[in-house]
Amino acid sequence: MPTGVALRDPRQQLFDAAARVLTRGGVTALTSRAVTDEADVAKGVLHRHFADFDAFLVDLVLDRIARVEAQGAALREAAGTGTVAGNLTDAMFELFEPVMSAIIVLTIARDELRNRLRATGTARFPLVGEAVAAVAGYLAVERDRGRLAADAEVQVLAPSLIGVVQLLFTEHRGEPPVEEVYNVVASVLR
Question: In the 8-state DSSP scheme, what is residue 27?
């Protein structure tokens, strides 16, 4: 391991390394040693920036939650353009990219991580809850613009969309065909 080399953004370097480990080996491969080896840094670097590995994982999830919230803002800004089903289909591929899916599994698998995330005030199901909120926010804007029925229940549609699309991604063990996701999104919206 290199020593005495200045790291530009060690936290982000470690998050990126964790993403690569998760993508390549799944949740069971994610250890502090795997992350530091992948980042090509000494193990002490992780512990210099985080109290312990679970603290690192909490910040990793919070970083991904911030990304989902940014995606939600971008989705709301897209309201009124394209088609509702098309915009949501595009968003689903961003929301369920492989690292996000792996982190959802990670939060389910690690009790201590879930407990610490709850202490930060995250949704009951981290990332899934934020994804539902992002989609619901977008659907509300589209309903207000008249592109969805005035009585559309966005708080029902959003978790329905997230759930069924997450199943598609899980079923395909990767990305399902775009047209399949589009058809499911369009069907739920009808």
Answer: G
Query: For residue 101, what are the contacts with CB-CB under 8 A and spacing of at least 6?
Result: 166, 169, 170
Q: Is 26 exposed, middle or buried (0-12, 13-18, 19+ CB in 10 A)?
A: middle
What rounded mean pLDDT belongs to the chain? 91
Contact yes or no for 161/185 (Cβ under 8 A): yes
pLDDT at residue 1 in the model: 46
Please enumerate in sequence order all residues whose Cβ is within 8 A of that of 84, keeping only pairs 6 or more positions apart, or say none: 139, 142, 147, 148, 189
Confidence band, pLDDT 50/70/90 cuts, at residue 123? low
pTM: 0.86
Rounded average pLDDT over 48-69: 94
| Residue 93 to residue 9: CA distance in whole angstroms | 27
Domain ranges for the chain: 8-49, 64-189
> What's the CATH fold of domain 8-49?
Arc Repressor Mutant, subunit A (1.10.10)
